């Protein structure tokens, strides 16, 4: 991990890590969790994260799509950072059966953006819905990969997965300070 990444990892840990045992191994300390809302509520940190995530967006992406609720703040800031339009994916279709709000996705190359990915199952369902609606979706980017199972599940669905940090990297960075 380079110095900038290490600093950001420590900042994320300080801002959002709850619980865990100081001095424990990374795996034991990860028994705590990351409060993504504390992370999203920190404008300086969210801006830094967005700038770094922008480097992970595949060339040719036409729409950034965030899954409610956690993906909405980061996709909004990332859209502002990159000038790539945003769409907001509903977990459940509304009474008018709209899958997305914001920018149209049909026929567009869409990159899905999320905050913390645990198993990836919800993302796979959302991506399948996006594809059925005519979007071309091949990539998912996120801030934190909480569980290696997520990467395997997303790759099995034919998705490339780009995470800024794994949970273990954040814990190691936070505990090493």
TrEMBL record:
This is Orotate phosphoribosyltransferase. Keywords: Glycosyltransferase, Pyrimidine biosynthesis, Transferase. Pathway: Pyrimidine metabolism; UMP biosynthesis via de novo pathway. It comes from the Bacteria. GO terms for molecular function: glycosyltransferase activity. Signal peptide: none annotated. The keyword Transferase applies.
């Amino acid at each position: 991990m380079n110095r900038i990444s290490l600093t950001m990892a420590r900042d994320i840990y300080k801002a959002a890590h709850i619980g865990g045992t100081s001095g424990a191994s990374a795996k034991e300390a990860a028994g705590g969790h990351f409060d993504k809302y504390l992370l999203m509520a920190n404008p300086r940190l969210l801006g830094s994260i967005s700038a770094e995530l922008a480097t992970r967006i595949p060339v040719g992406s036409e729409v950034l799509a965030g899954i409610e609720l956690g993906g909405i703040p980061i996709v909004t800031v990332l859209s502002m950072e990159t000038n790539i339009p945003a769409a907001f994916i509903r977990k459940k279709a509304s009474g008018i059966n709209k899958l997305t709000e914001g920018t149209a996705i049909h026929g567009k190359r869409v990159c899905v953006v999320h905050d913390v990915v645990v198993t990836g199952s919800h993302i796979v369902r959302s991506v399948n819905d996006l594809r059925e609606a005519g979007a071309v979706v091949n990539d998912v980017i996120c801030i934190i990969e909480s569980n290696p199972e997520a990467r395997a599940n997303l790759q099995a669905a034919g998705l490339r997965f780009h995470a800024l940090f794994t949970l273990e990297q954040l814990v190691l960075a936070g505990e090493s300070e």
